[in-house]
Amino acid sequence: MDTSRLIASLAGPTLVALGVTEAMNMHIFEAQTAPVVYLNGLVVFVAGLSLVRFHNVWVLGWPLLITLMGWILLAAGMFRMALPEAQQATATPATYVMLGAITLVGIVLTIAGYRPRRADTA
């Protein structure tokens, strides 16, 4: 569980910052060039691969969010690398719902990563 808490303490605030700042700057993402999309895909792919490699935990609970996030990042990064000229997200209600969901997952992980540890009862 210590690995989950460590990853949550890093990924949670990152997801909150990502969700909020992308929502604030949606206009710049609508006009990205293929090389920038490809580079972003590479970074996202490596982040996802790192999570899958070091945290492939399939148990019900908040640590599952980390594993699912890793697989989603891995797939999203591969998509951006394979199709860098594909239409990127536009400022639609669905995009803002997705960014809200990313922010919410970030809040959950931040709380899980930074909440006080429970004392052992054994």
Task: Record the SSE blueprint.
Elements: H1 2-24, H2 26-29, H3 34-54, H4 63-82, H5 93-114
Helix pairs in contact: 1-5, 3-4
Description:
The protein is mainly α and 122 residues long. The chain has one domain. The protein has 5 helices and no strands. Helix 3 packs antiparallel against helix 4. The two termini are 17 Å apart. The mean pLDDT is 91.
Quick synopsis:
Helices cover 74% and strands 0% of the residues.
Relative helix content = over 70%
Mean pLDDT value: 91
Number of strands: 0
- Estimate the strand proportion: under 5%
Quote the distance from N terminus to C terminus: 17 Å
Number of domains: 1
Q: What is the alpha-carbon Rg in Å?
A: 16 Å
Outline, from the CA principal axes? globular
Series of secondary-structure elements, N-terminal to C-terminal: HHHHH
* Unreliable residue stretches: none
Tally the helices: what do you get?
5
- Describe the largest sheet: none
Query: Which structural class do you get from the secondary structure elements?
Result: mainly alpha
List keywords for this structure.
mainly alpha; single chain; 5 helices; 122 residues
